[in-house]
Amino acid sequence: MDIQQLVSDVKTFFQSVLKKEANVIGVKRRENGWIVHVETIEDSDYQRRRALDDVVGIYEVEVGTNYEISGYKRISLRERDEIGKIDDADF
User: Fold this and answer.
1) Fewer CB within 10 Å: C terminus or N terminus of the chain?
2) Proportion of the chain above pLDDT 90, given as a percent
3) pTM for this prediction
4) Which residues of 57-86 are buried (b: 16+ CB within 10 A; e: fewer)?
5) Class at the top of the CATH hierarchy for domain 3-81
6) CB 62 within 8 Å of CB 30
7) CB 43: neighbour CB atoms within 10 A?
8) Rounded distance, CA 87 to CA 91, Å?
9) What secondary structure, in 3-state letters, does 12-68 show?
């Protein structure tokens, strides 16, 4: 599988499971598969009704050597206008 297909599969997973549009912001090959970092807008309708900035969630997705998603977790939250940073040591 190439990276384009991996990115497409992860985005499809987020749309079907979490009902969120996902932007892949990082992909790294590991011995046991892939680590993919994804950015999503969290509960944007709630924020818009209250005239607040969107909240951006950053997720880490684990993809095995068989290209199946084995897990995901949210690793940070921030308002859209804040500058976010992912710890490069973990990626």
Assistant:
1) N
2) 54
3) 0.79
4) bbbbbbbeeeeebeebeeeeebeeeeeeee
5) alpha beta
6) no
7) 11
8) 7
9) HHHHHHHCCCEEEEEEEEECCEEEEEEEEEECHHHHHHCCCCCEEEEEEEEEECCCC
